[in-house]
Design a protein that fits this description.
Oligomer: single chain
Helix content: 25-40%
Mean pLDDT: 90
Strand content: 15-25%
Number of domains: 1
Shape: globular
Distance between the termini: 51 Å
Structural class: alpha+beta
Low-confidence stretches: 1-5
Strand order of the largest sheet: 6-3-5-4-7
Length: 212
């Protein structure tokens, strides 16, 4: 029986991706890989958290600059945590924040953002709950997004706008036996960010961004 070799290629640099390479933005794939690699260089134990950010139905603010405002607020909260620990005389593990985001619009009236943040796992090891009375990753994301959107009630108004991705937490340890497996799983998951369809190309808005 003669078989015809498939022309589809679900790999990038020998790493599995979720879509055929022809349907992906290779520049985005390159930046995703570089961001992961640079994050691991800084944090040998790395925690990656996937979540989505959405706009309120009646939002009328600047939807183009809001993601920058979000990260500025989130960075400030991480810095405040470190400074507070220093004042208390506690050991401080640097957050070593890295991130990737992509703007999409699919079967919805407004844009939304898919985001991954990567942090030193010695500083943060879990996402936490949005309704927690103590600050955690989830509450810091929620209040940072509320601040970026200029919402009045940062806890009430923003809670429904944050969506934690299912199975969206990855823990990488360069010394662990499953490191390569986890690395490949993370890259495959984030290759979703590079798919061409649903991107907001040609609108003048940035479709993709990452830390440098």
């Amino acid at each position: 029986m003669i078989t015809i070799e498939s022309k589809h290629q679900f790999k990038y640099q020998n790493l599995e991706i979720l879509f055929d390479l022809s349907q992906c933005n290779e520049h985005y794939l390159s930046r995703i890989k570089n961001t992961i690699d640079q994050s691991i260089e800084r944090s040998k134990r790395l925690a990656a958290f996937r979540f989505d950010l959405r706009f309120p139905a009646d939002y009328e603010g600047d939807a183009d600059k809001v993601i920058t405002k979000f990260f500025d607020s989130f960075k400030a909260k991480l810095n405040a945590k470190e400074q507070r620990q220093i004042r208390l005389g506690k050991r401080v593990y640097p957050s070593n924040l890295s991130y990737i985001w992509v703007r999409e619009k699919y079967k919805s009236n407004s844009d939304h953002f898919h985001v991954v943040i990567m942090l030193n796992k010695d500083a943060f090891h879990s996402f936490g709950k949005l309704n927690s009375v103590n600050p955690n990753i989830a509450t810091r994301i929620m209040t940072s997004w509320a601040s970026a959107l200029s919402l009045k009630d940062k806890n009430k108004d923003a809670r429904g706008l944050i969506h934690q991705a299912k199975n969206g937490m990855f823990a990488l340890n360069v010394n662990a036996v499953n490191y390569n497996e986890t690395y490949k799983a993370l890259f495959k998951r984030l290759s979703y960010f590079a798919k061409d369809r649903t991107k907001v190309y040609g609108s003048g808005k940035r479709s993709f961004g990452c830390s440098r």
